[in-house]
Amino acid sequence: MAWPLPPGMRERDLGTALFPTATKGRDTAFSEPDFAALHGELKLKGMIKLLQGEEYRETHPNDGYSYAHFCHLFAEWQGKQKRSMRQVGVPVPSMQKMPLSNSP
Question: For residue 21, what pLDDT is reported?
Fold first, then answer.
């Protein structure tokens, strides 16, 4: 490649000339994490998403997502889940009737 650039060269052509491998798609298929299992593990004491991401990368060193993309995909998965708020009702003993007057 010579300077100055040829008059008809566009930025995309320049990028292809300088970085020929960057335009090729990645041939590797990524290994999808089991987000449902990961979600259940997060409820365990001491388990954090960082540990899960590290374990995922150790299990899938060549076909795994980066930690940032792992977290992004996990957040997307969580957003698609049905929301529910489980509440356990505990009966309260009835209060005794108290007089409403302030007189002694």
Answer: 72
Burial class (CB in 10 A: 0-12, 13-18, 19+), 70: buried
Q: Is residue 83 part of a domain?
A: no
pTM of the full predicted structure? 0.55
Into how many domains does the chain fold?
A: 1
For helices 67-80 and 49-59, angle between their N-to-C axes, nearest 10 degrees: 120
d(CA 4, CA 13): 14
Q: What is d(CA 78, CA 39) in angstroms, rounded to the nearest whole number?
A: 9
Cα 38 to Cα 9, 71, 81, distances in angstroms: 49, 11, 14
pLDDT digits (tens, 9 = 90+) for 39-64: 999 999 999 999 999 999 999 988 88
